[in-house]
Design goal:
With about 850 residues, the chain is of the alpha+beta class. The protein is about 50% helix and about 10% strand. The protein is built from 24 helices and 17 strands. The strands form four sheets. Strands 12, 13, 15, 16 and 17 form a five-stranded antiparallel beta sheet that branches. It has a four-stranded antiparallel beta sheet with strand order 2-1-4-6, with no helix packed on it. The chain has a four-stranded mixed beta sheet with strand order 3-8-7-5, with no helix packed on it. Strand 7 and strand 8 form a beta hairpin. The longest helix has about 35 residues.
Length: about 850
């Protein structure tokens, strides 16, 4: 064994320099804390109280007494700390570090052999021992100081002092400490005679104003829960004092009078507040408790065709709801435990989503809708229980009764896509279903040519199958489960939507989805969205055929078209679609499916001739004619809404019954059934109310149909890319938004608001038609030799009064209605009649307001 030299021993001791120094520093901190913790705690507590402004709440004598006692206490604690503190030496640090090592190796390195110094064998043994001790010193680490002083502070007063100081840092101010010296001169500056001021400050979340008590003469005072009452007393100390029984610090028996300059307390119960002394006053405080919020689901959950759920609810609170949550848990008892759902489900956490709240406005009573899409969640299309929770600013929460329902999700009408989604549900239900899922997917895809439209979808299914089969024997982890579920979702979307880049493929897909929806009993909303998809796909297909005909240079040949293909106008196509939708709404699914098949055959055999329409009209003329019809129908709806508004305020007036104009039926929108819309103004009041509600719903439905028709016309609007054409599209967009507002107002029986929105829609339609006419005129100027026939038609187009019907798409004319010498006399007669009717107090208020607006304008 190699001998251990003195050089190696000194090097080992030198390596202990930093552990010894850090251990010594820790001993300094340990002894200082044990000696000076009373002094530090007292200083922190006093500084914290001064930062919080306690000096403003105490009487001057009490304040100075506290200052003197605090100073004497701090001096005593400081002297005791200095007396008990002893600086640790290096030897003490070495001994403490050596005690933590096995065998005290540091002391062994510093020792010498007591006997056997002349014996070489004994010295060799001693050196070997020192070598082992030196190896142990390499593991030496600084000794952590023991800063626990719970034995010296059994009541944890040090933590109270630290807490007071931290609260002062958050809510106090350092500058308040310097105000202690100014209190001595404060008493000399008080006004002669005692006086007082008081305020009641409600909690911020209530939105209530601060009340100045000096202005309150009523002896009873209603105060919101949690309000802060502040009373300031001026004058000679002790001339005024306060007694109160409303704060938690006071008992039911009135407390002894408090004479400090400032009194501040929080109202937690009803009681009395009295200011005793000259000019004092007393109030009986009635506490207004903060009631918990209320929340409830107000209607069934609705789902769109893409699975987006809309759940209406109402929430209310006396001061406003802060936030709410919806908790969705699986209703396992209501699940049909068959097939893939027969296995024990994997544990799933409940869905917790925040409820929407108004960004601005009143939150005391509001109605909102939770709109979320849970189509990809494992609970989709399964029975669940939805529980709503609301909380107010006082952290009072209320939980509504759970509502059982089926969690809406996206519905897939393609059979293969529906099969993939069903197996995805089984996989998310339990990972143990992996083997069964692989068998089912192999069975349904046994003949891929019959169920797959694209090779890409089949290859993706094969990839998913291999993945499941490889993992099934060993178990599917949650991460792999989510990964496979996402791949199956993407595959189902591909199978359902197909290739939308091709117009014909999109048209076929839309027709097939609609056919599957009729077979599977889809909801009215889903059918409406699929019908709209079919309309859009048809428009795209017609535009594609039109572009193809233009590129191939086909000429208009009626004989050739009649022999080789079928011709259809856009109006004929829309009429067939309206007929299909009407049959589905009436529940006649067999007839609707047959009509859909006929439409599909006609669309596939149809040829579109570029530049020709019904009656030889150009696309611009067709668009102008369609917009004119839309404007007339909108005018009719507005007239009907005005008459319904009059009947609402004056049921016996029967306004407009004798007017057999077109507006009575609201213009008879395209594709809508209007039986029974004629006015039958007779019957009792209850029947009139029912008819009025039914009429409002009918008007709203017709307004919705008119909005959809305008949307279709916007898609076929010519003049794209020109300033006039873009301006026309912008105007029609405004008209569409106004129609949406009118529909919403009609559904809420707000006839006045609906009339305003309809007026905006008509004005925007007129502007759009003017811009479209300018675009058509500009196009004709750029193409010489065109438009002669149109000019001849416009020259012959005059209204019954012999005036021109207008130009540039306008519905009116710049020419005056009255011609000749009787213009001013007739105008005077009209003005007198308006004045006479406005003075008739028996007329409805809405009619009087309308007449007043006419007088203000003319």
């Amino acid at each position: 064994m190699a001998s251990f030299s003195r050089h190696e021993m000194r090097r080992s001791l030198k390596s202990l320099r930093w552990p010894v120094r850090l251990t010594q520093n820790g001993m300094v901190a340990e002894r200082a804390l044990r000696s000076f913790w009373p002094f530090l705690s007292l200083c922190l507590a006093v500084i914290g109280l001064l930062m919080l402004g306690v000096q403003d709440m105490l009487a001057l004598e009490v304040l100075w007494g506290g200052v003197v006692l605090s100073a004497l206490g701090a001096l005593v604690f400081l002297m005791l700390g200095i007396r008990s503190f002893a600086w640790p030496t290096r030897a003490e640090a070495v001994a403490k570090l050596d005690a933590t090592l096995p065998g005290r190796p540091i002391q062994a390195l510093m020792d010498d052999a007591a006997i056997g110094a002349d014996d070489a064998s004994a010295m060799a043994v001693w050196r070997a021992h020192q070598s082992r001790m030196a190896a142990r010193t390499k593991d030496a680490k600084p000794v952590q100081p023991d800063l626990r002083i719970s034995r010296r502070d059994p009541f944890a007063l040090r933590y109270v002092a630290v807490l007071v100081f931290l609260v002062a840092l958050l809510f106090g101010s350092v500058w308040r400490v310097g105000t202690v010296g100014n209190l001595a001169g404060a008493s000399a500056a008080v006004p002669n005679g005692p006086t007082w001021e008081g305020w009641v400050e409600p909690p911020r979340y209530t939105g209530l104003p601060t009340v100045y008590l000096n202005d309150i003469t009523d002896p009873s005072l209603r105060v919101a829960q949690g309000s802060t009452i502040t009373l300031r007393l001026y004058g000679e100390v002790g001339a005024l004092n306060v007694t109160e029984t409303v704060s938690p610090a006071m008992s039911d028996v009135p407390a002894e009078g408090q004479a400090s300059p400032t009194q501040e307390f929080t109202v937690t119960r009803s009681g009395n507040i009295t200011i005793n002394g000259e000019g004092g006053r007393s109030w009986a405080v009635d506490l207004v408790s903060d009631t918990p919020p209320q929340i409830e689901i107000t209607g069934p959950a609705e789902a769109s065709a893409v699975g987006e759920m809309t759940l209406p609810f109402e929430a209310r609170d006396d001061y406003g709801v802060e936030f709410g949550t919806a908790r969705i848990t699986l209703d396992l008892d209501s699940v049909d435990r068959r097939y893939g759902l027969a296995a024990q489900p994997d544990p799933r956490e409940a869905i917790v989503v925040p409820l929407p709240t108004p960004i601005t406005g009143d939150r005391r009573n509001y109605a909102e809708s939770l709109i979320e899409n849970f189509s990809q969640h494992p609970f989709s299309n399964l029975p669940v229980i939805v529980t709503l929770n609301a909380q107010d600013a006082l952290e009072q929460s209320t939980q509504a009764a759970g509502k059982p329902m089926t969690l809406p999700g996206r519905r897939f009408f393609d059979p293969m896509a529906a099969a993939v989604i069903e197996q995805r549900r089984d996989l998310l239900w339990a990972a143990s279903n992996a083997g069964r899922i692989a068998q089912v997917l192999r069975a349904v895809s046994h003949r891929p040519d019959e169920v797959f439209r694209s090779e890409t979808a089949y290859l993706r299914l094969r990839t998913i199958l291999r993945r499941i089969e490889a993992l099934a024997p060993y178990g599917v982890s949650p991460e792999q489960q989510d990964e496979i579920a996402l791949a199956m979702w993407d595959l189902a979307i591909m199978l359902e939507e197909g290739d939308l880049s091709d117009a014909l493929e999109r048209l076929r897909r839309a027709q097939e989805q609609l056919a599957e929806a009729m077979k599977n009993g889809a909801s009215d909303q889903e059918i409406a969205e699929l019908m709209q998809e079919l309309r859009d796909a048809s428009d795209d297909y017609i535009r594609q055929l039109s572009r193809q005909a233009q590129q191939e240079g086909e000429q208009s040949d009626e004989r050739q078209s009649a022999e080789n293909s079928m011709q259809m106008t856009q109006d004929d196509l829309q009429a067939m679609m309206d007929r299909i939708q009407e049959l589905m709404e009436q529940g006649r699914m067999a007839e609707a499916q047959q009509a859909l098949q006929e439409l599909q055959q006609m669309m596939e055999n149809m040829r579109v001739t570029q530049g020709q329409g019904q009656g030889g009209q150009s696309p611009g003329e067709q668009a102008m004619e369609g917009l004119a019809e839309t404007l007339r129908e909108q005018q009719g709806l507005s007239d009907q809404a005005f008459r319904d508004l009059q009947e609402q305020f004056n049921p016996g007036a029967q306004a407009g019954e004798s007017q057999g104009n077109e507006g009575r039926n609201g213009g008879q929108g395209r594709g809508q059934s209007h039986e029974g819309q004629g006015g039958q103004g007779q019957g009792n009041g209850e029947e009139q109310g029912d008819n009025q509600a039914q009429g409002a719903g009918s008007l709203a439905d017709r307004q919705q149909a008119l909005r959809q028709e305008l949307g279709r016309q916007q898609g076929n609007l010519p003049g794209a890319g020109t300033p006039e054409g873009d301006a026309a599209r912008d105007a029609l967009d405004r008209a569409g938004r106004a129609m949406d507002g009118a529909e919403e107002a009609l559904r809420e029986d707000d006839y006045a608001g609906a009339i305003d929105q309809q007026s905006e829609a008509m004005e925007a339609l007129r502007e759009g038609m003017r811009n479209l006419g300018e675009a058509m005129a500009q196009e004709q100027r750029n193409q010489p030799g065109q438009g002669t026939a149109e000019g001849n038609r416009q020259a012959q187009n005059r209204d019954p009064l012999g005036r021109n019907a207008g130009s540039n798409g306008s519905m009116g004319t710049d020419e005056g209605l009255l011609q000749g010498e009787d213009v001013y006399r007739r105008a005077r007669e009209l003005l007198d009649e308006i004045r006479r009717r406005s003075g008739d107090g028996d007329r409805p208020d809405i009619e009087l307001e309308y007449l007043k607006r006419l007088l203000d304008r003319f």
